[in-house]
């Protein structure tokens, strides 16, 4: 990878990290104010938020880019910027037309959509009614995220990543503001305020990326809706791409529906999901955002060797970063949730004169167990973001779609079969299993086509990274019994003890990785020179 690629990675990952840190603050405050298992508002809000949040991830981080960027890049390379801008305007109008109809349909038939998201809520009229209300408020966010995805795709294709990477900050800022302002109100009012904050966050994000695109000369004008050849091609690629790139999100929607039969399960899963999203976003999504335009360009130029080499280096870098995070989630799931959702939430809420966190010990245990299971799937969630662009860059969305459908079917069957015995934890396990299945199918197919050539270096590095991560897991495991003592020395703040342990664990992992050869200082020199 060249210095330019790593500069782009630094821009995207830095903005994404800041956004996800704010996301942590948002999640902690919401959990502290409305709780989880014991409050129907929590389950209702997270169930209603699941659908627009899924579309945010698909359009802003995956499926839409998978179809749009290769076509947009092709227009720029073959016909110039004017043709690319015209194509983007045609897509803009098509999106507005289609999504206006869909939004109107959902607003009129919201109870039906709630049943599709969380059928188990039907037995609780209050929870079902709240979910319906929140769905109606938040669903227009879907249209906004679709347009954000279009603008972000253009900016990423132009190697301008700051605006699209920074836009998600708006959602977290709006939600944090709403929670703080209504922290002492009735939970139903707080939940409604949070729903309106999602709506406002969508508007602000759209304004940010529209301004960013306009600065690059891509202020898009409205045209009459037409089913042009370019739009037809986008739709032909888009639907398979939506399914293939969004398999993990679709699996989570399926899981939410199944888990809705258990009180509190939707909130537990959503809180665990938000925690593992930090490393997933900073590593996997960042790589995917930068990798897809670069792979598309190399494929168009016929540089297949360079494309394969970029995949290998992306797998190395992602493994070096996500394996230790996975180890921490597996070993410390419950302590992390205790520190964040109870300890830190209580301290944060006290700044605004609010009461103690409503997140209970039972919520901690259940969310921690789900987080540990998601931790096993974290490398697969990340690698899916690396393997999928290798297909999308070649305008092949049908092959990964087939694998995605297999993944969705496996997830659904496994969760349904295991749910009577293991409850909502079957959903987390099935999601992780399905992600590994999909990644294996993608990798095998790319290898068969000779578009993925692992080589000895990648295998050796992965083995050493696993060894270093295993050493970290052992270090964390034997450190846990000393958390209470550390907390006592830190003003009885367990979250400070967790932060301290995370810092020490990071240093331990760096030394372990260098010791076993999972990473070498010379790698940085190679990267900065370009390879």
Low-confidence stretches: 524-531
* Distance between the ends: 5 Å
Q: Which H/E pattern describes the elements?
A: HHHHHHHHHHHHHHHHHHHHH
- Give the helix/strand class: mainly alpha
Describe the secondary structure blueprint for this structure.
Layout: H1 3-34, H2 40-61, H3 63-79, H4 81-108, H5 110-117, H6 125-138, H7 141-157, H8 162-166, H9 169-181, H10 187-215, H11 229-245, H12 247-259, H13 265-300, H14 304-350, H15 361-392, H16 398-422, H17 425-448, H18 455-479, H19 483-489, H20 494-516, H21 521-529
Q: How would you briefly describe this protein structure?
A:
This protein has 531 residues and is mostly helical. 83% of the residues lie in helices and 0% in strands. It has helices at 3-34, 40-61, 63-79, 81-108, 110-117, 125-138, 141-157, 162-166, 169-181, 187-215, 229-245, 247-259, 265-300, 304-350, 361-392, 398-422, 425-448, 455-479, 483-489, 494-516, 521-529.
Polypeptide structure, described:
With about 525 residues, the protein is mainly alpha-helical. It has one domain (about 5-530). The chain has 21 helices and no strands. It has helices at about 5-35, 40-60, 65-80, 80-110, 110-115, 125-140, 140-155, 160-165, 170-180, 185-215, 230-245, 245-260, 265-300, 305-350, 360-390, 400-420, 425-450, 455-480, 485-490, 495-515, 520-530. The radius of gyration is 22 Å and the shape is globular. It starts with a helix and ends with a helix.
């Amino acid at each position: 990878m060249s210095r330019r690629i790593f500069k782009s990675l630094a821009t995207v990952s830095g903005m994404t990290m800041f956004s996800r840190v704010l996301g942590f603050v948002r999640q902690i405050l919401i959990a502290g104010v409305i709780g989880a298992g014991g409050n129907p508002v929590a389950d209702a809000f997270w169930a209603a938020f699941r659908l627009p949040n899924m579309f945010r991830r698909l359009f802003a981080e995956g499926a839409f880019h998978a179809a749009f960027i290769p076509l947009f890049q092709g227009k720029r390379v073959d016909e110039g910027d004017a043709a690319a801008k015209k194509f983007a305007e045609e897509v803009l109008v098509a999106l507005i037309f289609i999504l206006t109809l869909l939004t109107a349909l959902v607003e009129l038939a919201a109870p039906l959509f709630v049943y599709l998201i969380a059928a188990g809520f039907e037995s609780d009229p209050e929870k079902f009614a709240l979910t319906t209300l929140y769905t109606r408020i938040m669903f227009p966010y879907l249209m906004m995220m679709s347009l954000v995805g279009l603008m972000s795709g253009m900016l990423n294709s132009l190697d301008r990543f700051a605006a699209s990477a920074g836009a998600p900050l708006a959602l977290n800022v709006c939600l944090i503001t709403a929670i703080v302002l209504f922290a002492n109100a009735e939970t139903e009012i707080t939940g409604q305020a949070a729903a309106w904050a999602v709506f406002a966050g969508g508007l602000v994000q759209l304004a940010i990326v529209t301004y960013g695109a306009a600065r690059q000369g891509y202020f898009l004008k409205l045209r009459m809706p037409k089913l042009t050849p370019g739009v037809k091609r986008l739709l032909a690629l888009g639907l398979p791409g939506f399914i293939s790139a969004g398999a993990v999100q679709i699996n989570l929607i399926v899981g939410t529906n199944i888990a809705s039969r258990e009180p509190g399960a939707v909130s537990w899963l959503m809180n665990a999901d938000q925690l593992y999203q930090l490393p997933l976003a900073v590593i996997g999504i960042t790589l995917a955002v930068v990798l897809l335009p670069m792979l598309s360009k190399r494929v168009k130029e016929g540089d297949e060797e360079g494309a394969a080499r970029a995949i290998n280096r992306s797998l190395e870098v992602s493994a070096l970063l996500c394996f230790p995070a996975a180890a921490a989630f597996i070993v410390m799931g419950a302590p992390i949730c205790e520190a964040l959702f109870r300890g830190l939430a209580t301290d944060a809420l006290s700044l605004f004169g609010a009461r103690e966190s409503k997140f209970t010990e039972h919520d901690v245990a259940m969310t921690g167990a789900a987080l540990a299971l998601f931790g096993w799937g974290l490398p697969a969630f990340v690698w899916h973001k690396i393997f999928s662009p290798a297909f999308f860059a070649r305008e092949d969305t049908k092959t990964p779609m087939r694998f995605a459908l297999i993944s969705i079917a496996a997830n659904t069957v496994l969760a349904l079969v295991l749910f009577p015995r293991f409850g909502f934890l079957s959903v987390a396990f099935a999601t992780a299993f399905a992600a590994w299945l999909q990644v294996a199918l993608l990798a095998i197919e790319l290898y068969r086509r000779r578009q993925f050539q692992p080589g000895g270096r990648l295998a050796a590095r992965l083995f050493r990274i696993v060894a270093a991560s295993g050493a970290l897991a052992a270090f964390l495991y034997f450190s846990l019994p000393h958390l209470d003592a550390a907390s006592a020395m830190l003003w009885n703040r367990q979250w400070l003890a967790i932060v301290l342990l995370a810092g020490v664990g990071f240093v331990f992992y760096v030394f372990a990785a260098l010791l076993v050869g999972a990473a070498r200082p010379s790698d940085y020199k190679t990267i900065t020179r370009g390879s």
